[in-house]
């Protein structure tokens, strides 16, 4: 039995170490069908939900260097969400699923070694998608360059407008 526990801890530790985040959720009252549906919804984001004994998670969390303040949340029927990709997308799915079915309840989480409470995870869920944030950042970075190009082009454009107006005025006086 001890060898099995060691293998489970090693498996959990590898999941925790390969994921920048860990969410702890209370899945009490969640049917097998709904749990499978949650797994299905998390899959496209690269996230997974698993059930491990809380004592095994505590040992893996200690070995991974997670904050000790996570331990009080490792009680009752807990499931654990990890993933290698977009933490915001996983948080959004968890929040929407909990709103839709009133289960599972988000207890806490760890993001890059920092403890998050349920409100912190919900705040992550409210952030725009990674692609939207990248587009916004690109827009912010391009704005000064665009303004500089317009500023550099303005003297030439002003000169062209003055010459065109003078040519138009000369053309009208010749026609009269």
From TrEMBL:
What keywords sit in the KW lines? Answer: Ribonucleoprotein, Ribosomal protein, RNA-binding, rRNA-binding
InterPro entries membership: Ribosomal_uL10, Ribosomal_uL10-like_sf, Ribosomal_uL10_bac, Ribosomal_uL10_bac_type
Annotated Gene Ontology cellular components are: ribonucleoprotein complex; ribosome
Q: Name one GO molecular function term.
A: large ribosomal subunit rRNA binding
Q: A Pfam family this protein belongs to?
A: Ribosomal_L10
SUPFAM superfamilies from the xrefs?
Answer: Ribosomal protein L10-like
- Name the Gene Ontology biological process terms: translation
Q: Summarize the subunit comment.
A: Part of the ribosomal stalk of the 50S ribosomal subunit. The N-terminus interacts with L11 and the large rRNA to form the base of the stalk. The C-terminus forms an elongated spine to which L12 dimers bind in a sequential fashion forming a multimeric L10(L12)X complex.
Question: Main role?
Answer: Forms part of the ribosomal stalk, playing a central role in the interaction of the ribosome with GTP-bound translation factors.
Indicate the family of this protein.
Belongs to the universal ribosomal protein uL10 family.
How is this protein named in the record?
A: Large ribosomal subunit protein uL10
Q: Which species does the entry assign this protein to?
A: Prosthecobacter debontii
């Amino acid at each position: 039995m001890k060898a099995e526990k060691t293998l489970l801890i090693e498996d959990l530790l590898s999941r925790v170490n390969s994921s920048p985040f860990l969410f702890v959720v209370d899945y009490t009252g969640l049917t097998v069908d709904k749990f499978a549906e949650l797994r299905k919804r998390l899959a496209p984001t690269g996230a997974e939900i698993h059930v491990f004994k809380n004592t095994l998670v505590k040992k893996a969390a200690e070995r991974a260097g997670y904050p000790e303040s996570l331990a009080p949340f490792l009680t009752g029927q807990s499931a654990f969400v990890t993933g290698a990709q977009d933490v915001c997308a996983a948080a959004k799915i968890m929040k929407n699923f909990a709103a839709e079915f009133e289960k599972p309840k988000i207890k806490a989480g760890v993001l890059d070694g920092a403890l998050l409470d349920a409100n912190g995870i919900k705040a992550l869920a409210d952030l725009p998608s990674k692609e939207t944030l990248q587009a916004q950042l690109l827009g912010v970075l391009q704005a000064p360059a665009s303004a500089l190009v317009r500023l550099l082009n303005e003297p030439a454009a002003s000169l062209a407008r003055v010459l065109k107006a003078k040519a138009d005025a000369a053309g009208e006086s010749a026609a009269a």
